[in-house]
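@channel sequence for tomorrow's demo:
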Amino acid sequence: MTEAGGAEISPQTAWMIAVRDRRDRAAFARLFDYYAPRLKSVTLRSGTPAAEAEDIVQDVMLAVWHKASQYDPARADVSGWIYRIARNRQIDLARRKARPEPEDLMLDASHAPEADQIVAMAQEAGELRRALGQLAPEQKRLIEKAYLGDMSHVEIREDTGLPLGTIKSRIRLGLERLRYELKELRKT
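structure tokens (generated this afternoon):
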């Protein structure tokens, strides 16, 4: 096969170009059939367990499909491009494994809340629900997104389409109303 410039290209490069330019599924199937066993073999030789190697191959080939528009045959041979994606996936996986997992929190009986504390917390939660019910619906919705949904103001803007200033104002006014509604709780 020859490229527009007259240079010979491999069948794999031609398949990749077809995937890139036309989203050609048949060409992608050929790429998959050609590279999947080779990627799995390389991954297994690096000491990766078989099931994990299969997952990596699937991830890599999915990335090849999604990133096909980024492939430039003038910059890299298709096999080099695909193997670089595979290498990066393996590195990402190794980093994730190296990250320490948080320890489970173990509470002993001496730190368990007393019955009166549990009742007080339940009463406070009820008061908070009542106070939230007193808010205007748009204030309540934004406060729930910000504090219960753990969303930033920017994320709320993206979710609702509201201007940032409106979001901040409604949250501020809603919090002032909640403080007013809950002032009796603060006295105790």
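heads up for whoever presents: The first helix runs from residue 11 to 22.
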